[in-house]
């Protein structure tokens, strides 16, 4: 009897292994479609969203091959569009590997929050996805162009943005950062802009410039050079170049400075009752190219070069601030956040009317450029007499 | 009957894991935003006197648990009525913790799996552990404590590139009000929940003073709690902490070192499950002890299974959704728990002191 019950128990346990094995909702990888990137458009004819996904088709075999494919589907909401898409793709769309989300200008102008919410609330999507604004007519054409280096455009865009740290002409922004910018009352959001450019007779997406937001609405774009100044203010420059007209007596040849390191400090100061923002920029650079034979390497030439580079940087940053103040009146630099952090007492008084304050905020720029070396050559190339 | 014993070291670990419980993952004091770490400090200070009361009671009646103490202090009838409160509270608390786990797994890992399932397995595990006795819990915590600490330590090292100290500023922008408010939240959840240990520490080998065990636990927890809260704020920023359900999880999910070390948030989920398990087990243990003392059972073991299943079911039906849970945990719970955590212990201590001083009760009686 004892023996029998033991056998029965054993059988019961063994039977359990049949029923309890595996996962509750397992998903086989061959029944999933991997989404690499998302583009969101507004339908022109009716009040619907157009959701485009770039999917990765992987073919097995000895040499596995990756191909990109796009699907565009309309829906009343983005979630609706996503569900509608399943009826076309046949397989379940898997968003966890999506790397970029491109918003069209129309969507961004109408208010980014409407679409950002879906991106953030979706449990599959990861919040380090990169968000961009398309400067082309629609967002989906960005994903539909052929990629130059990679098969998958979304992955390439992602890599470009990850490299931005060294180029400094577009503000890389992951979803979580965008949300915290949008939520903060003392800073306005910016996003990198992507446009289509003709390169070697092929149309390719190019990430350059900045989309400027006010609250959550797109108000305009900055070009690549202005973006660099913006990144200088935000202390996000870790590389890139400064091109400088030599100046001086023989006014002419251009010099490229390669930026090695940069620290920017914002300091709100009060001058006779008025708030003023001091921007201290400390940059270490190297001479990377002298397009001419003037000597900028010896001390007098170098000092002159530093001085004129500082002057140029100062002027262009001041111009940018002025432009943003008058044209967009949107605090994309984070001046307000800085005031709030450093002078909470002052912010309490002026925070509610920061828009007016920002418009008339005086800004003083103090750049300090140090040239540390002249790359491989110690002299300019001299042309023999 | 052989009395089960835990060493004071195990007691400290048990206490610490219990306090880490579910709350660190839901975020300490999210409403204080970037001042949450100050709130954590203030909350710890607030807990110092109340923990003195618990330890004082336990050292007055050595070897007795709270139900014995109630019996001695209030007499048989009134004591049993008050004991009902301390049976309900751990039952409810345990259910809340199980539910936390269910919601956590349901939200972040397995949205389509029925929530009852992970909760049921946690229930079975705790039933098993409690059946095995408080000694086993003590030894479990000795194994688990280093695991939890190591995971916390490693993740702290890995978030270093993501630190943004500007998030700490401005300090106390909204004044001291929200900070005190949050400090009170932290006080009631989890610090003063250690009132339940008045039923556990009767099993403590009393070679060290009970005060030391209680305060070491508090200190270790305060160190971990303040550190992790600071880390949360510095990485995520105060605004975001108030906006996500499980800040610690979100924070660790940011880690991506060289695109190689990434997606390690599951390590946080592991500590969540470990500490939840300890907390549920302690709650279940206390409930069972209480019920067995109430009805004069020989051993609490005969009722563990029923009580454990009840706890899981209570967890399953107690909230409609995660919004209810967050509302109850952060808005109502602090006031709901106040009688169990503060008012009753203070009354018990006052009456006990009076009766001992007047010679009605011998102090330090061993049962």
Structural write-up:
The complex is a heterodimer of chains A (385) and B (367). Chain A has 385 residues and is of the alpha/beta class. Chain A folds into two domains: 195 residues; 161 residues, 2-Layer Sandwich (GMP Synthetase, Chain A, domain 3). Chain A contains twelve helices and 13 strands. In chain A, strands 1, 2, 3, 4, 5, 6, 7, 8 and 9 form a nine-stranded mixed sheet that branches. Chain A has a four-stranded mixed sheet with strand order 10-11-12-13, with helices on both faces. The longest helix of chain A is centred in the C-terminal third of the chain and has 30 residues. Helix content of chain B is 70%, strand content 1%. Chain B starts with 7 loop residues before the first helix and ends in a 10-residue tail after the last helix. Chain B has one domain: Up-down Bundle (Amino acid/polyamine transporter I), CATH 1.20.1740.10. A two-stranded antiparallel sheet of chain B has the order 1-2. Chains A and B meet through helix 7, helix 10 and helix 11 of A and loops of B.
Can you tell me the overall shape of chain B?
A: globular
Number of contiguous helices of chain A: 12
N-C termini distance of chain B: 12 Å
Q: Helix proportion of residues of chain B, in percent?
A: over 70%
Number of domain modules of chain A: 2
How many angstroms separate the termini of chain A? 114 Å
The largest inter-chain interface, given as chain pair and residues per side, is:
A-B, 17 and 20 residues
Extract low-pLDDT stretches of chain A. Answer: none
Low-confidence stretches of chain B: none
- Residues in helix, % of chain A: 25-40%
Q: Name the shape of chain A in a single word.
A: globular
Radius of gyration of chain B: 20 Å
Largest sheet of chain B: 2 strands, antiparallel
Give the rounded overall mean pLDDT of chain A: 84
Number of helices of chain B: 14
Query: What is the CATH-assigned architecture of chain B?
Result: Up-down Bundle
Taking the sheet with the most strands of chain A, its summary is: 9 strands, mixed
| SS elements, strand count of chain B | 2
């Amino acid at each position: 009897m004892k023996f029998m019950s033991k056998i029965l128990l054993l059988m019961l346990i063994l039977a359990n292994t049949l029923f309890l094995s595996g996962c509750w909702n397992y998903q086989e990888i061959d029944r999933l479609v991997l989404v690499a990137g998302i583009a969101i458009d507004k339908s022109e004819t009716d009040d619907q969203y157009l959701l485009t996904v770039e999917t990765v088709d992987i073919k097995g075999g000895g040499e596995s091959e990756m191909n990109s494919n796009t699907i565009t589907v309309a829906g009343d909401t983005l979630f609706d569009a996503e569900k509608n898409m399943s009826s076309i793709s046949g397989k379940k769309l898997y968003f966890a590997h999506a790397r970029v989300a491109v918003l069209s200008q129309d969507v961004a102008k109408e208010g980014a929050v409407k679409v950002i919410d879906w991106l953030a609330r979706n449990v599959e999507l990861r919040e380090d996805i990169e968000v961009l604004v398309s400067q082309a007519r629609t967002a989906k054409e960005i994903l539909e162009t052929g990629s130059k280096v990679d098969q998958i455009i979304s992955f390439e865009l992602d890599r470009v943005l990850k490299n931005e740290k060294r180029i400094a002409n577009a503000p890389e922004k992951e979803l979580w950062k965008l949300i915290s910018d949008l939520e903060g009352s003392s800073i306005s959001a910016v996003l990198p802009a992507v446009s289509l450019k003709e390169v070697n007779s092929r149309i390719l997406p190019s990430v350059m410039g900045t989309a400027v937001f006010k609250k959550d609405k797109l108000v305009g774009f900055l070009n690549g050079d202005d973006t660099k100044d913006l990144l200088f203010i935000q202390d996000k420059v870790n590389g890139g170049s400064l091109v400088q007209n030599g100046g001086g007596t023989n006014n002419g040849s251009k010099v490229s400075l390669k930026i090695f390191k940069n620290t920017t400090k914002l300091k709100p100061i009060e001058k006779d009752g008025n708030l003023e923002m001091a921007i201290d920029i400390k940059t270490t650079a190297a001479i990377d190219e002298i397009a001419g034979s003037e000597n900028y390497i010896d001390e007098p030439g170098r000092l002159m070069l530093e001085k004129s580079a500082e002057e140029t940087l100062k002027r262009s940053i001041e111009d940018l601030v002025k432009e943003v103040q008058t044209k967009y009146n949107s605090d994309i630099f984070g001046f307000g956040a800085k005031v709030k952090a450093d002078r909470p007492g002052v912010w309490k008084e002026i925070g509610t009317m920061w828009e007016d304050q920002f418009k008339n905020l005086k800004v003083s720029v103090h750049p300090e450029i140090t040239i540390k070396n002249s790359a491989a050559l110690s002299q300019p190339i001299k042309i023999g007499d | 009957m052989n009395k089960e014993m835990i060493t004071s070291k195990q007691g400290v670990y048990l206490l610490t894991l219990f306090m880490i419980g579910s709350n660190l993952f839901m975020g300490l004091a999210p409403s204080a935003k970037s001042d949450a770490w100050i709130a954590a400090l203030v909350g710890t200070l607030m807990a110092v006197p109340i923990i003195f009361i618990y330890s004082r009671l336990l050292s007055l009646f050595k070897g007795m648990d709270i139900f014995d103490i109630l019996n001695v202090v209030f007499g048989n009838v009134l004591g049993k009525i008050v004991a009902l409160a301390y049976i309900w509270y751990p039952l409810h608390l345990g259910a809340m913790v199980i539910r936390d786990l269910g919601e956590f797994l349901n939200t972040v890992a397995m949205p389509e799996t029925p929530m009852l399932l992970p909760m049921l397995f946690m229930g079975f595990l705790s039933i098993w552990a409690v059946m095995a006795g408080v000694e086993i819990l003590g030894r479990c915590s000795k194994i688990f404590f280093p695991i939890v600490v190591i995971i916390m330590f490693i993740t702290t090292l890995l978030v270093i590139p993501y630190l943004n100290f500007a998030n700490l500023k401005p300090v106390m922008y909204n004044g001291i009000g929200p900070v005190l408010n949050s400090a009170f939240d932290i006080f009631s959840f989890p610090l003063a929940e250690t009132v339940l240990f008045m039923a556990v520490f009767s099993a403590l080998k009393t070679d060290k003073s009970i005060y030391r065990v209680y305060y070491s636990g508090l200190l270790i927890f305060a160190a971990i709690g303040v550190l992790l809260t600071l880390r949360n704020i510095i990485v995520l920023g105060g605004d975001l902490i108030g906006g996500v359900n499980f800040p610690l999880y979100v924070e660790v999910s940011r880690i991506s070192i060289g695109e190689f070390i990434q997606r390690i948030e599951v390590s946080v989920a592991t500590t969540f499950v470990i500490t939840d398990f300890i907390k549920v087990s302690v709650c279940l243990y206390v409930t069972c002890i209480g019920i067995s003392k109430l009805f004069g059972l020989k051993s609490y073991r005969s009722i563990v299974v029923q009580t454990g299943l009840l706890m899981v079911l209570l967890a399953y039906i107690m909230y409609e959704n995660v919004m209810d849970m967050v509302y109850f945990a952060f808005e109502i719970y602090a006031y709901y728990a106040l009688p169990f955590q503060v008012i009753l212990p203070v009354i018990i201590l006052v009456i006990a002191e009076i009766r001992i001083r007047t010679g009605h009760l011998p102090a330090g009686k061993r049962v």
